Amino acid sequence: MVQYTTPKVLEELKNFDTPTITNAVGSYPNDPKCLTIYNAWRGKWYTDQTLKCMYPELGRRVGYVVTAVYGPVDPSAKSKYTLYDIFKAIENSPKPVILAIKQDFPPEMKGINGLSGGMMMSSFRALGTEGVLSDGPSRDLDEVRNFDIQYMLTGVTPGHGDFEIRAVNVPVDICGMDLMPGDIVHMDENGACKFPADRAEDVLESCRRFSEAEGDKQKRILEAKTAEEVYQIFTGTSYGEK
Q1: Collapsing DSSP states into helix, strand and coil, what is residue 164?
Q2: Global confidence as pTM
């Protein structure tokens, strides 16, 4: 099992919100503080508005990605996976884990599929999972909150029908973000952002630089008295300059 960065770096990344992570990773490609790891608009490296944070009060989570794909039962499928396969993938991953669950269901099922609930989530938590991302709904919000595991979903619904595990630790797309096993995900109430595990220290340093620069600029903006002053501080130029 390869550790791509230190637990200290992952813990320090929690000092920054997910928008600051996106600033560091790719949102400002013309800013020297930005790492420009992905294309800002087309890199599919952060989630869209459909993913919702169920427990903002539990705070930010950072971890290594493990993936799973669920779908309706297919009697013709030759390869069958079980929960044990997901459990072993979590066990074998560097910690902490962010589990990304792809819900490969037709629309008439996906919207009413409360896929993961208290029993599954307690099992994932026991093995080192600190957050779950899914591009569909789940259930048992009150129960799961007690496990101190962050839940990021498209919504909630109380029931489901028969389903099966179709794949484990394969590439998936979750609400606009492409994920590979071993990526690092940072997630909070703003959404989730990924980056390569071997760039974690670079991301941390970039976040520090963005945070320091923005903190200083915001302080000066709040002390400004005129539109000209605010504009000059915000842009670094006087109004009308080119």
Answers
A1: strand
A2: 0.92
Measured between alpha carbons, how far is 203 from 72 in angstroms, rounded to an integer?
39
Distance CA 55, CA 210 (A): 26
Q: Provide the residue-wise pLDDT of the chain in tens; the chain has 242 residues.
A: 455 899 999 999 999 999 999 999 999 999 999 999 999 999 999 999 999 999 999 999 999 999 999 999 998 877 789 999 999 999 999 999 999 999 999 999 999 999 999 999 999 999 999 999 999 999 999 999 999 999 999 999 999 999 999 999 999 999 999 999 999 999 999 999 999 999 999 999 999 999 999 898 899 999 999 999 999 989 887 666 65
The encoded tokens of residue 202 equal: 């670079």
Radius of gyration of the CA atoms of the chain, in A = 20
Count of CB atoms within 10 A of residue 27's CB? 20
d(CA 110, CA 203): 35
Q: Under DSSP, is residue 184 helix (H, G, I), strand (E, B) or coil?
A: strand
CA distance readout (Å), 138 to 15, 113, 144, 166: 28, 7, 11, 18
Counted residue by residue, the chain has a size of 242
- Determine the Cα–Cα distance for residues 54 and 56; give it in Å rounded to an integer: 6
d(CA 89, CA 93): 6
CA–CA separation, 37 and 27 (whole Å) = 10
What dihedral do alpha carbons 154, 156, 158, 163 form, nearest 10°?
A: 20
